């Protein structure tokens, strides 16, 4: 069985600086895979490369064997690979529910003209989106704030909303950008539970980029560790925990306190 | 050929000075100053009033333009831009304000100085003639040199003075500058004052050569926008480059294209569109400003 | 909610089609017809500008499309002998097509950059009108015949304007109908999925792309619709004035279109209509102030900006709380 996502020799150079250097790994369908690394290791560049928001200098990303790395972002999303951003990227002046409804765009069967004219199909679509949005609101436990304006939400809720937006697109693979950043222990544990249910109950493959080590250890099926733009290790949480290169990378960097 | 280059340099120096003021205001406040052309015209009229009506020396007129426009800029920042920036939901609101100020200045100019074209008599006589290759009146040379001098002073000020460095920090990252203890309100005000002063100075310089009239404000603003689009908005080197490039293009265009009628600016605009399609941030700008 | 909306709409129709003509008839201020016709047409153009705001772009180039639309209609009517009623949609479509060609590269620009390019666009249109042979240079196109009869299957829908005893009322009615249709279309766009997607674009283009929205396509689509509105407004203007010159729509007009939207409120579909009415009608009324007209006008504008930086319609927010 081919992996759902294949990252092949991907490299990104900015001028003379190599941010990501010849990184390869596979993501298997239905797993939770985390990419970790010290600050400045090239995690977020790698993330942007995989979601095709930044063109790669060389190498490619395949989704179910199809090349997605040079496609426009909306086409990547259309294929079922969807990224969520760090917390600030939501539609700020929409309510939580509006955020989720508008993100159902990919599921619409009616054309834009159909929506304009209010055809039967369009009405069915809108009703379906609304129902699905409520479903997602329940799934993520956002009932209490569904009609809040997104710009008024606290950070924890924003993160959940970001995930809700991702879910609304009905993704096969969801890419999460630092889902635990800035969270306290309780919030992190809650989020860990959510990400698990995402996979278990909705069957979504999860690829996340993160540097909160305890959370990553808890949640991941497998982990890829990068440093200075290069992959230095890959394996189960146990293997990674014992990998000397990983320990060295973290000790040699500023966030030495990884709390393993 | 030499003549075209000389004309281009002369024009470019004036343009660069106008663009510098505009880009300074833009980088500090993220405000596109629609009233920049009007400030320029206002400066011209002030110099005219001082020199022709009061009979004082040209340099006094120039200084008066600088001081009055600087005060005007500071007042506009403190009482108009700052409150609107603070209270508006969108950045764009400042644009409406700037457009309103442009109209307002037009109205003030009309009431104070009237509709007539005004000029100041030549400040120096004679024509420089290099073997018929470059022919240029001495007053143009003087004004051109003065403009270049002002550009140099401005760059030195931005690079070496405390205030200049503070403003550059502010332009780069407002938040960070604030955290570093830069008094944002004060330097925003100073920045607008300085930008307006530059516009006024160019007005004062050019009133001796081309004169000024009420209708010049809008077109001058558009030219200034062109320059900062060419060079990249919010970048000092970009404004200077944009000014000189536009000056050159105009100078070349007026000579080469004159046979085809008045299409120089049409060609310049069309070139700019193509250029921006390839390089949206201009020559030296950061992407998305 | 539905009923109150219907009531409001009926009241509006009653006001513009019955009360206004009655009022003008009673006061004898026939010039108001001309002013209000202009308000209606300008608000059609402003509707377009507002739509580009809705996708997060500051459009200061509507004057260009109004000018192009005016010329297309004028040239077709005077040189091709085409019926004005046919040239109206043709002018709109022509502008839409041009705007697609121009929009493809420039809609990638954001913020002030886009604003500046569109501003330059108005100058390009004016200079082109001066330079092209077909537009007749600075002399413009004059003595455009009034719109003829519009009939479908021999049934007269609109009588020839030349045969009307008072064409001013005819133009007024026509312009108001055009305005109402435009705003119904705009309202429908905003309240359908198309509008929701536009809003998503306005708020966050990256996120919009990552939920699968073809942002480039949507931007061009919105801009084309916007320019269509500009084109038909310009065509109608040329027909009413029976002339068009390169200076018929200049940079100041483009800026004004933008101001109408701002002043009414960018968050409200009917904002541009109200903004156009207040500013244009206000300007007209201020003519009694003579040389102080511009001073008072711009002073009030600045004052409004200070008091209501989010538009006049933001007053409603405080009362009702939200939309």
Automatic annotation (TrEMBL), chain A:
GO terms for molecular function: ATP binding; ATP hydrolysis activity. InterPro entries: AAA+_ATPase, ABC_AA/LPS_Transport, ABC_transporter-like_ATP-bd, BCA_ABC_TP_C, P-loop_NTPase. Residues 5-253 form the ABC transporter domain. Gene3D superfamilies: P-loop containing nucleotide triphosphate hydrolases (3.40.50.300). GO terms for cellular component: plasma membrane. This is Branched-chain amino acid transport system ATP-binding protein. Pfam families: ABC_tran, BCA_ABC_TP_C. It comes from the Bacteria. Keywords: ATP-binding, Nucleotide-binding, Transport. The keyword ATP-binding applies.
TrEMBL record, chain B:
Its main location: membrane. It is found in: Cell membrane. InterPro entries: ABC_transp_permease, BCAA_transport_permease. GO terms for biological process: amino acid transport. Keywords: Amino-acid transport, Cell membrane, Membrane, Transmembrane, Transmembrane helix, Transport. One of its GO terms (cellular component) is plasma membrane. The chain crosses the membrane at residues 12-33, 45-75, 95-113, 141-160, 189-212, 224-247, 259-278. It holds the Pfam family BPD_transp_2. GO terms for molecular function: transmembrane transporter activity. It is a multi-pass membrane protein. Belongs to the binding-protein-dependent transport system permease family. LivHM subfamily. PANTHER family: ABC TRANSPORTER PERMEASE PROTEIN (PTHR11795:SF452), BRANCHED-CHAIN AMINO ACID TRANSPORT SYSTEM PERMEASE PROTEIN LIVH (PTHR11795). This is Branched-chain amino acid transport system permease protein.
TrEMBL record, chain C:
InterPro entries: ABC_transp_permease, LivM-like. Pfam families: BPD_transp_2. PANTHER family: HIGH-AFFINITY BRANCHED-CHAIN AMINO ACID TRANSPORT PROTEIN BRAE (PTHR30482:SF10), HIGH-AFFINITY BRANCHED-CHAIN AMINO ACID TRANSPORT SYSTEM PERMEASE (PTHR30482). Keywords: Cell membrane, Membrane, Transmembrane, Transmembrane helix. GO terms for molecular function: branched-chain amino acid transmembrane transporter activity. The chain crosses the membrane at residues 7-26, 32-53, 60-78, 84-104, 111-132, 169-190, 220-245, 257-283, 295-316. Its main location: membrane. One of its GO terms (cellular component) is plasma membrane. The keyword Transmembrane applies. It is found in: Cell membrane. This is Branched-chain amino acid transport system permease protein. It is a multi-pass membrane protein. It comes from the Bacteria.
